[in-house]
Design brief:
The complex is a heterotrimer of chains A (262), B (370) and C (307). Chain B is mainly alpha-helical and 370 residues long. Chain B has helices at 2-47, 55-66, 76-110, 123-137, 147-173, 181-204, 208-219, 227-246, 248-255, 258-264, 268-290, 296-308, 312-336, 345-366, and strands at 174-175, 178-179. The chains are: A alpha/beta (262), B mainly alpha (370), C alpha/beta (307).
Chain lengths: 262, 370, 307
């Protein structure tokens, strides 16, 4: 379990995160939603170990994150940031293999390539495998990056490899079209079914409701409410956090709420 | 009209895409081709020279050096020229060409900028400042030292100067154990400016002879190479370059960004330090012996990237090969073009490298996909 | 299949280029494949081929009648005019071994201070001897140069003749200078590089030597070598004459610009426009034409005397 307790983070006099406690259990999808500037990306940076908070602790399986080496961390958790810039011309296969490059010196053995291919297939990007990364569209490149992240922790490998891992995703579907948005989130859900704990920042509330086990609503660096979508999503909460009027109804097919803008 | 242009562009892009994908498969034989160029240049450097030495003599001399006693008269002059002048010079060309090229490639990966050059971290200008100081202060011929050691004062001083300058850049750009690459870039520029000012002052206070000396040093030259000099820098350049090649994975990950590289599992700060140290060592050693030779660190990795893409697993080692081949070829030209004088090689690399680089940039602009 | 076709083609191309390159090398090498003549043996039977390094060395060689035997000179050899047509091996302190050897010389005469020393060692190692000619900035030094050079090329008699002729030509100037009752105070300025900032000649320079031979007094006594001219130094020096070379004056920008230099404008030399401009090699080279140099310098320093 990835646990962050009482996280406080301030920058330039602003309190970005204020006393946040969040836990990401294995085999669950935790979604974080909130308006711009709520501190979602900062929270992800802290959970991933890139930034140290001013106060509070982050633990993976009880061990504080500072005591993990980057290599050990990379085996247990993979992070997809927003807006990854890669200005150099790289083969897509090589980009995906980058995710595995720290764990294995021989990053182009057949086993590694198989892992990469599986990951690309899961993000519907297998046909791009020999394409040049710089020639891809925004959506295509995002899918390749997600494949890299999936390959890094080998979500879809054999049984032994799937336990006790985490995926931290910062708006992974922002450039994708509708079809691929659905596909990607389903992939993420199936990764969770195999035991991976997923922390995902989403902008689309409905998708969050559809795919997440638990939603955290963040506003101005504090957790306003958290819980399962059915439990917490209501017009009052949405109005409080996002300052818009909505109407919440049960989803026609799935077992989750559906939010309509008024 | 516009539609036609659009379609042409698409066709061109598709062709470029295909050719880039093809290259992926042709990589092994392209690498072989590069090795052939380098071997050809090395052979050419040994064969071509102002003094005409028949191939038969070459075999005799090299044979004797390797231990085979070939029963034939050996001409002493040819032996000295081949083994004492051309061979160390050729080896130096290979070392310096390869070293500067891989340093440029590594820094371009580190700065995530294809225009990065070893001079950005201040090592070239630091070495230049130290060398010119030694020339102008007149300490490069100390009476009490034996001749061989005297020859090493200038290179040693230049090497130290280069390392000191890089250290300054590093210290200024680091804070609490983290090195900011963008700050390093700016600091490098500032240190270069300071060194230029120092150089300017030294030039101002120099006399005619010193001025000529330091000008020649600054123009870059591979003449006057001895085995001592070559063997002094060979271990540094070879070992450091080998380490850099092994850092190819790290540099690849860094291309995604420092935070991404951390997520992938690399020690980012340590990697940065190690790369800077290795590049400073290689460049410092090369500049110390040969003066400033420009454009190798810039153009060679660029060319390699055009052919192989940016995967540092290939870019780093292939840069070494192509850099060695190119510098050796340039040296052959510099030895013949103004016979009986020799053109300082820095002039040649700048003359050829500059316009070539411009052409590369213009070509890239046309094929920009974004 | 496509792949293999391109592979094949590339390999063929590579092999062709490589073999072509080697054959070309072979061709050049064999084209001149007479084995190198053993050096320094039977140099009397072979034609003299002299490599002359140093402006004054070249000058003296021409005076000894060996101008046609010179096969190459360095970049400082600018007198006589014929020397400029000879192949140029570059700056005397930045030589390279192989070109010198490729000229197949019988003698290499190099002025002291040629280099780099490594290169001279390489040339010697290859079996080619180098005669280093001493470069003492004095009248005796000039005679020594002539003697060393003439003995190196086995023209001792001609050398002695030259020395005596020079002594004879110098005598009138030296006597006239000795008769002078004034010791003019002079400042010698040179300018190197862009920016045109001049340096002054202190003690232990060839400038200092020619000044004292000319019976004048170098106003710079505090330092050795060439140092940038500061206004205080210029004012303290207060020279009656300022001496400079054509090239330096060009870099400074002319006599008017020279006078404007801070500190110089109030010197007697500037006020009276006593600026002496001469050719650099002539004035400071301490070569054969030192008598001309002394005459010209003397006539300007002592206008009342006959030279």
């Amino acid at each position: 379990m990835l646990v962050a307790e009482k996280i406080c983070l301030g920058r330039n006099g602003n309190q970005i995160l204020d006393d946040i406690t969040i836990s990401v259990p294995y085999a669950k999808v935790i979604a974080v939603v909130g308006p711009n500037g709520a501190g979602k990306s900062s929270l992800l940076s802290i959970l991933s170990g890139a930034i140290s908070p001013d106060l509070g602790t982050i633990r993976i399986d009880g061990i504080e994150i500072q005591n993990w080496t980057p290599a050990n961390l990379s085996i247990r958790r993979a992070v997809l940031s927003q807006n990854i810039q890669l200005d150099f011309s790289f083969n897509c296969l090589d980009v995906v293999l980058l995710g595995r490059s720290a764990q294995n010196i021989n990053a182009s053995s057949n086993a590694e390539i198989k892992i990469a291919e599986v990951a690309l297939e899961k993000t519907d990007a297998l046909h791009l495998i020999n394409r040049n990364y710089s020639s891809l569209s925004g959506g295509e490149s995002q899918r390749v990056q997600l494949a890299r992240v999936l390959a890094q922790i080998n979500c879809f490998g054999n049984e032994i490899d799937r336990l006790n891992k985490f995926l931290l995703l910062d708006e992974p579907i922002s450039s994708l079209d509708l079809k691929h948005q659905q596909k990607l989130l389903s992939t993420v859900r199936s990764a969770a079914k195999r035991g991976v704990g997923v922390f995902v920042i989403l902008h689309d509330l409905n998708l969050a409701c559809m795919f997440a086990d638990e939603i955290y609503f963040l506003k101005k660096g504090a957790v306003i409410k958290k819980g399962t979508p059915a439990q917490v999503v209501c017009p009052a909460l949405v109005k409080d956090v996002f300052e818009v009027d909505v109407c919440v109804k049960p989803h026609p097919i799935r077992d989750c709420p559906h939010i309509t803008l008024l | 009209m516009e539609k036609n242009i659009g379609r042409d562009d698409v066709i061109k892009q598709r062709r470029l895409r295909l050719s880039k994908d093809l290259i992926y498969f042709l990589r092994p034989c392209l690498i072989g081709f590069l090795i052939l160029i380098m071997l050809g240049a090395v052979c050419g450097s040994l064969v071509f020279g102002s003094v005409k030495i028949p191939i038969s003599q070459m075999f005799i001399v090299f044979g004797k050096a390797l231990g085979f006693e070939i029963l034939s008269d050996i001409v002493r002059r040819d032996e000295v020229i081949l083994l004492g002048i051309r061979l160390p010079r050729t080896i130096l060309c290979v070392l310096v060409g390869g070293g500067l090229a891989i340093s440029g490639a590594a820094l371009q990966g580190l700065f995530r900028n294809p225009l990065a050059d070893p001079s950005l971290i201040g090592v070239s200008s630091g070495a230049a400042l130290a060398a010119v100081s030694i020339i102008v202060l007149g300490v490069n011929d100390l009476a009490f030292l034996p001749n061989q050691l005297n020859h090493l004062i200038l290179p040693l001083g230049a090497f130290t100067g280069g390392l000191v300058a890089t250290l300054c850049v590093y210290i200024i750009a680091s804070y609490q154990g983290k090195t900011s690459i963008s700050t390093m870039l700016l600091t490098g520029i500032a240190i270069n400016a300071l060194a230029s000012a120092g150089l300017g002052f030294l030039i101002f206070s120099s006399d005619d002879q010193q001025l000529r000396d330091l000008n020649f040093w600054l123009l870059g030259s591979l003449a006057g190479v001895t085995w001592y000099k070559v063997l002094a820098i060979a271990p540094i350049v070879i070992v450091a370059s080998t380490f850099l090649v092994f850092l190819g994975r790290h540099l690849n990950a860094l291309l995604l960004g420092e935070r991404e590289a951390f997520y992938i599992g690399f020690y980012v700060e340590k990697t940065k330090i190690v790369i800077i140290v290795l590049v400073a060592l290689i460049t410092g050693a090369c500049v110390a012996l040969t003066g400033i030779i420009g454009f190798i660190g810039l153009v060679v990795p660029h060319l390699i990237r055009l052919i192989f893409g940016s995967n540092n697993k290939f870019v780093l080692p292939c840069s070494v090969i192509l850099g060695a081949g190119l510098l050796t070829t340039a040296d052959i030209i510099s030895r013949h073009i103004v016979w009986p004088a020799e053109l300082p090689i820095g002039i040649l690399t700048s003359c050829v490298g500059g316009p070539f680089f411009l052409w590369l940039i213009m070509r890239q602009k046309r094929y920009q996909v974004k | 299949m496509h792949r293999f076709k391109s592979l094949n083609a590339l390999l063929h191309l590579a092999a062709t280029i490589f073999i072509f390159g080697l054959s070309l090398g072979n061709f050049f090498a064999l084209a001149d494949a007479k084995p190198a003549a053993p050096l320094n043996e039977n140099s009397e039977t072979r034609n003299m081929r002299i490599v002359s390094i140093g402006g004054t060395v070249t000058e003296i060689l021409y005076a000894l009648g060996s101008g046609s035997e010179i096969v190459a000179v360095d970049s400082t050899s600018r007198y006589p005019k014929e020397a400029l047509t000879k192949p140029n091996i570059g700056y005397m302190r930045r030589l390279s071994a192989e070109p010198i050897l490729s000229l197949d010389p019988t003698k290499v005469l190099a002025i002291e201070d040629s280099g780099p020393l490594v290169v001279l060692d390489q040339v010697r190692d290859a079996g080619q001897d180098i005669n280093l000619i001493s470069d003492e900035p004095s009248l005796e030094g000039v005679y020594a140069k002539i003697q060393e050079i003439s003995s190196a090329i086995n023209k001792q008699e001609a050398g002695e003749k030259l020395v005596n002729e020079l002594r004879a030509r110098l005598k009138p100037s030296i006597d006239t200078i000795a008769k002078a009752d004034t010791r003019p105070r002079v400042l010698l300025l040179l300018s190197f590089g862009r920016g045109g900032s001049p340096v002054a000649a202190g003690k232990n320079t060839s400038a200092d030597s020619i000044i004292s031979i000319a019976g004048a007094q170098n106003t710079i006594e505090d330092f050795e070598g060439y140092k940038p001219l500061s206004p205080e130094v210029a004012v303290t020096a207060s020279p009656d004459f300022i001496i400079t070379t054509n090239r330096s004056l060009g870099m400074i920008g002319g006599i008017d610009k020279l006078i404007e230099i801070p500190g110089l404008s109030i010197t007697p030399a500037a006020k009276n426009k006593n600026i002496i401009v001469m050719d650099g090699l002539l004035l400071l080279g301490f070569g054969l034409r030192i008598d001309e140099a002394l005459e010209e310098l003397g006539s300007q320093l002592y206008p009342e005397l006959k030279f």
